[in-house]
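seq as requested:
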Amino acid sequence: MIVKIYPENPNPREIQRVVEVLRGGGLVIYPTDTVYGLGCDINNAKAVEQIARIKGLNLKKDHLSFICHDMSHLSVYTKALDTNIFKALKKNLPGPFTFILPANNNVPKLFKNNKKTIGFRIPDNPIILEIVKELGNPVLSTSIRDEDEILEYTTDPELIHEKYANQVDIVIDGGYGDNEASTIVDCTTFPFEIIRQGKGELQE
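struct tokens:
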């Protein structure tokens, strides 16, 4: 199913529809401020494992990211943040960044990798932020990649729907996506290390 939601004014009824699918263990493809993402409720182990199978991910080794709706939501899942990290997050979020931070015990065991870290995103996109806020839990975030040699990411939600219709429950059409992923910043070292330079220019 493809659902049209406008970023300027997300329809609460459509947001609720997506949230109900997530609560029921469904998989959703959604827009962000960078590329389209594939996600589920982080507390639904079966849905998380399904995404891992679709993407060929190893939950213990591969870095996965959570989408939170604001800083206070993010802080529920991280260890106490020092001043430098807090300032960097405040200055750059919402925005096209994934910040790697130390995870606390609120992060489901399924995600506990050897380093005990998780990537966190607060994208500058009202659609996914409203969904996460309404859901009350973070949404797992992994990018929709393309096998195309030129374009790394599919930007057209109609084409995404064609490709993933049999694997996910809802594709949200929030307009064309970007073709550049988020900038990944490792905040477990100081100075911070940029693991991947993407769309975001880090303001320190």
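Strands lie at 2-4, 28-30, 37-39, 65-67, 97-102, 117-121, 139-143, 170-173, 183-186, 193-196.
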